[in-house]
From TrEMBL:
It comes from the Bacteria. It comes from Nonomuraea rosea. PANTHER family: MEMBRANE PROTEIN (PTHR34400:SF4), PTHR34400. It holds the Pfam family Ferritin-like. InterPro entries: Ferritin-like, VioB/RebD_dom. This is Ferritin-like protein. Residues 19-239 form the Iminophenyl-pyruvate dimer synthase domain.
């Protein structure tokens, strides 16, 4: 068993940097799981095959939801130490970027490659696994941070759990050195709670004990507590992989997913290598709507986690709007997108949600009235973009109805400030 190299944390900015990395990591892992979920077929299979695919869809969705929880817990940790939570991240694919060279991100349809990649990402401490074909580390690991470095920078971590153990140990040492009150200087009112998110596992972080509880929740759901990974993400993916392998052995022609491609509406601004672009006009419409819904969810969550003087009712509206956009708009549009042709340049391939980041997403202004005006405007723009296509496309029509309900709810809540 290979020992994990120590992660060095000497001051707040070291923690801040690592939590920012953790937020990007959780965000991109969640998107990979959603892409695989959306790619799964709903017809054209035998009854037994379809039953298995439906189980895998639910499993992927459940794990993706837990990754969303992890992202929210990281946001709580950031807020607790005085760092503004962010939902910005780089575009896919990421081979040599914000993470150590062994941790790479790519959108893959459900299948052997995707499952191999997911098992690699979720592997427990000390477990040796090889990533899927094509995931090749291209840079040497960063040099270890040494005592006395004032500016934070990338550090090597072998697994997701390794990163969080380093953050937990660093926070513990930092609190012992300067005091918990100094470390956890954020306002308790800024914390996401179990009541607001209706997640029993949500931990409001206000001190070292609650910070360690939040980190342990992430580690246990991902790789398992004390090496018991059977009910953790790793064990759940392994069970899916075993079932998938058995069904493929029984029927080598079994294809449970559409050949989805993480195709973009335009070349991403932060990826140097040319990326596949959507060439079908109807698919392009759907992809843009999907990206708008995704962007709106991020803006709603950003306002929640960096709110100022919103009431409990208003915070509930923000959370409810984000969940409704995810379930009622992004999920059906993303699922349908994985069934639409990517275009003539990609014969035989369907599209899929690339979760495009069109620019570096930063926070909106802190003033409540202006922030809610911006949110309401963007939500109504989504409804307006759906309108010309709703009559001829039942998926877009249903998404438009859900988006309008969300926009009206946010508009009604924000109208009191205008």
């Amino acid at each position: 068993m290979t020992a994990e190299p120590p992660i060095v944390i000497e001051h707040r900015e070291h923690v801040w940097y690592l939590l920012y990395q953790a937020a990007q990591l959780e965000h991109m892992i969640m998107c990979q799981y959603l892409f695989a979920e959306f790619s799964l077929k709903s017809d054209g299979l035998t009854a037994d095959q379809q039953a298995a695919v439906d189980r895998w869809r639910q499993e992927l969705h459940g794990i993706a939801v837990q990754e969303m929880l992890h992202l929210a817990l990281v946001a709580n940790l950031m807020s607790a130490i005085g760092a503004a939570p962010t939902f910005n991240r780089p575009n896919f694919p990421q081979s040599c970027g914000p993470f150590p060279p062994s941790i790479q991100m790519r959108l893959l349809p459900f299948g052997e490659a995707a499952l191999t990649h997911f098992l690699f990402l979720e592997r427990p401490e000390g477990m040796e696994r090889v990533d899927a074909a094509g995931f090749i580390a291209c840079d040497p690991p960063p040099e270890p941070v040494v005592a006395g470095e004032i500016f934070p920078r990338a550090q090597e971590f072998a697994t997701v759990g390794h990163l969080y153990r380093g953050i937990r140990d660093g926070l513990t040492a930092l609190a012992a050195r300067v005091g918990e009150e100094q470390v956890f200087c954020g306002s308790p009112a800024a914390q996401a709670t179990a009541e607001l998110f209706r997640w029993p596992e949500m931990v409001a972080v206000t001190d070292l004990k609650s910070a360690c509880a939040a980190i342990d929740e992430i580690i246990e759901q991902g790789e398992g507590a004390q090496g018991d990974w059977r009910e953790a993400h790793y064990g759940r993916f392994l069970k899916v992989w075993e079932e998938y392998t058995a069904l493929r052995a029984a029927d080598p022609g079994f294809e449970p997913a559409h050949p989805a491609l993480g195709a973009f509406t335009r070349q991403p601004f932060d990826v140097r290598e040319p990326q596949p672009l959507i060439g079908d006009p109807g698919t392009m419409v759907l992809a843009e709507l999907c990206n708008l819904a995704y962007e709106a969810i991020l803006w709603l969550l950003t306002r929640f986690f960096t709110h100022t003087d919103e009431s409990e009712e208003e915070l509930g509206v923000l959370v409810g709007a984000a969940i409704a956009m995810m379930a009622g708009v992004l999920r059906p549009l993303g699922t349908e997108l994985a069934r639409r042709p990517a275009g003539p340049a990609h014969p035989g391939r369907t599209a899929g949600p690339a979760f495009e980041m069109y620019y570096v997403m930063d926070n909106v202004v802190p003033w409540r009235a202006a922030a809610w005006t911006v949110l309401t405007e963007r939500l109504h723009q989504i409804v307006g973009r759906c309108a010309p296509h709703a009559a001829g496309d039942p998926v877009i029509a249903a998404a438009a109805d859900r988006a309008k309900a969300v926009a009206d709810a946010v508009d009604a809540c924000g109208a009191r400030y205008r």
